[in-house]
Amino acid sequence: MSESSRDAVLARIRQGLAAGPAPLPPRPDFAAPVHPPLSNSDVVVAFAERFQQIGGEFHYCETLVDLATQLAAFRERQQVGAPYVWEPDLQAVLQAAGVAFRAQEDDFIANADLSLTSCEVLVARTGSVLVSAATGSGRRLSIYPDQHLVLARPSQVVAEIGDALRVMQERYGAAMPSMVSLTSGPSRTADIEKTLVLGAHGPRRIALFLLEEEDATLN
């Protein structure tokens, strides 16, 4: 390095030192929310919007008659038989609505094209359905069939995943179910060529029927 080059470097160093230390970055506000506000102040509307964005099919049912009509229309569109329903409370709701279902496990493996289950919680932030093995549906009905239907009510919607986990903790305490799963849209995967395949590890379609019946016992 020539004398002039060395002098120029030293001059820049002296100038930098004279300016003093660089200011510290602002201290993070650890009390501030991590996520931006939901898309809608109504968590039910926010859930419906997000659920559909990630590939779910959302149906709002104001009455049991409405539920029966929309379930029949769904089955006709998809050309599927009656859903497998193993939860007694759900069976009671469907019987009151006049909806046919399969309560037994006869030929389940061969004919499991459609299931209907309840859920623990619905998460507005991610549009996720939280299911567990604690219900009469167990593990199989939310995973094995080609198409998974969920019957829920508005009171089950919470804003964040943390809220959903708190609900589970309050509900079960130390006796947490052996399986707790957050389902976000239909099962999907993509290979190295980025070819999207639905139904690779679970149901190819998920549809949620939100029932606005105050006297419908779903849990």
From TrEMBL:
PANTHER family: LACTATE UTILIZATION PROTEIN C (PTHR43682:SF1). InterPro entries: FTHF_cligase-like_sf (IPR024185), LUD_dom (IPR003741), NagB/RpiA_transferase-like (IPR037171). Residues 107-210 form the LUD domain. It holds the Pfam family LUD_dom. It comes from the Bacteria. This is Lactate utilization protein C.
